[in-house]
Amino acid sequence: VFSSVTSVLNMSVFKDQFVLEDLIQELKKKSTALSFGPLQSNGHISVQGSFPAIELLRDFLLLKAKSLSEDKNEESKSHQRPKKRQPQCRLTTETSNFVHDAKGKEQVVVLDTDVYHYMKKFLSKKFLANTDVVISDITDGDITTLYLQKVRSRPDAGQILRVKEQIECQSIKLHDTLCKERIYLEGRIRDEKQKYKSVCESLKSHYPYVLVIPYDTHIDVIGNSSEVFEFTKEVNK
């Protein structure tokens, strides 16, 4: 396990759209867990910190680069929500329609998909309690992108930003504590697969903070490392 890693970012790709020094300051405020070196004349800058924090920074920059490309190619649609970003599910149990706020304010968070599933199951009420924020998501393999918006316009303009910061801080903590075990079902007959899924279901009450996600070919078990170990041990008895 790497406690700290160093990465060199090439920021020159943003020089036509941003003042690089200002963009670096934005990154420093966003990623307080990282240490930034001086910006070089060629646009390179070194960044040091934990691997999960580096990953979050990378995903944020990739998303920013992608959004710039989309804005350039679809300038006429810049005030519309792209069809591909229709909400698939939310970090809330509400069923009301997704609505833009008056100013179209939106915040974006990029998460590890396993961390997102865990947060959605156990922490969504904590983040969204007493807020007008709704969250839609797009999952692409190991990465899930969240889009945060308000359903009603209220004086508290910083509400979305606070929810975003809470999600980001919690995701970094979970990166350090969560682990995942996969129980493979491939090659097993239907009755055996059902038996494994039934055992997992029966164990949930004994492991209330372990997330179980069943698929046709495998079962993912996500949670604290010691609890995940004990859970999978029980399943494989």
How far apart the termini lie comes to 30 Å
Helix content: 25-40%
The computed structural class is alpha+beta
Report the portion of residues in β strands: 15-25%
Order of helices and strands: EHEEHEHHEEHEHEEH
- The dominant shape is globular
What would you note in describing this structure?
The structure is a single chain. The chain is α+β, with helices and mostly antiparallel strands. The chain folds into three domains: 68 residues, Ribosomal Protein S8, Chain: A, domain 1; 95 residues, Alpha-Beta Plaits (2-Layer Sandwich), CATH 3.30.70; 57 residues, 2-Layer Sandwich (Alpha-Beta Plaits), CATH 3.30.70. It contains seven helices and nine strands; from the N terminus they run E-H-E-E-H-E-H-H-E-E-H-E-H-E-E-H. The strands form three sheets. It has a three-stranded antiparallel β-sheet with strand order 1-3-2. Strand 2 and strand 3 form a beta hairpin. The longest helix has 23 residues. The radius of gyration is 21 Å and the shape is globular. The two termini are 30 Å apart. About 14% of the residues have low confidence.
